[in-house]
Amino acid sequence: MPTSPLMPAAFLGHGSPMxxxxxxxxxxxxxxxxxxxxxxxxxxxxxxxxxxxxxAVTAMPNPRTIHDFYxxxxxxxxxxxxxxxxxxxxxxxxxxxxxxxxxxADREAWGLDHGTWSVLVHAFPAADIPVVQLSIDxxxxxxxxxxxxxxxxxxxRHGVLIVGSGNVVHNLRVIDWKQPDxxxxxxxxxxxxxxxxxxxxxxxxxxxxxxxDYRLAVPTDEHFLPLLYLAGLSAAAGRPADVLVxxxxxGSLSMTAFTLxxxxxxxxxxxxxxxxxxxxxAPENANV
Length: 288
Prior knowledge:
Layout: E1 9-13, H1 25-36, E2 42-47, E3 51-52, E4 56-58, E5 64-65, H2 74-77, H3 87-97, E6 104-106, E7 111-112, H4 114-123, E8 131-133, E9 136-137, H5 142-152, E10 160-166, H6 185-200, H7 214-217, H8 225-237, E11 242-245, E12 248-249, E13 253-254, E14 257-260
Parallel strand pairs: 1-10, 2-8, 2-10, 3-9, 4-6, 5-7
Antiparallel strand pairs: 1-14, 11-14, 12-13
């Protein structure tokens, strides 16, 4: 693999998939991130929405755009993100993480789910950079994901931009429709402590599992786990992550995003909060 300047990395709090269609302060931050980084050879995405009992990487030349949600307007189902894949990167990933991790190649089953394309449609709207997704192995403990993130760090020297997509706080069963741009006290406590760890001791991010608000903030772990990959990358680099943007949605969602080694311009003005979660089905059944 040819070497290149060190590529940044990020964790983006994606929230409602409707953010794909909206220009708000979160999607504008994603755009600023995409504009600030060197052009990647490829993007490796780690999305909350490919959470399965296996470790796999997409290895098809043209991954499909997956609309893995329910109850949203037709305009969202019409979105396509036709970025090419890069099958050769699947082999590079397998080599980089061996022998500690074994990665399978998915050549036809998956593609780019909304955790990936809803943020990339802003960060890289031309969809002309190859994108590969890495699954989140649901069977593994928190420390395992941090260690895998650290192993992936070698890809940053080979033009690969690593982007995790999830939410630090994600509890759809207790959302408060009256607080579209606010967070419950417990959500703010947990998010604040996560930010402190990412700034000071990213290698200790798994200690949040003993946080008194963990069960409310992380009732299921699929949206939290992508953050651990950036924590592993940060620990491997020996440098803290920076907050790209922060905020809350409907009381129980954190929209906090982090970057590593990215020089993003400061945002000015207020272009509104996160997109609506108003769907025709209950939010917890919408696969948000």
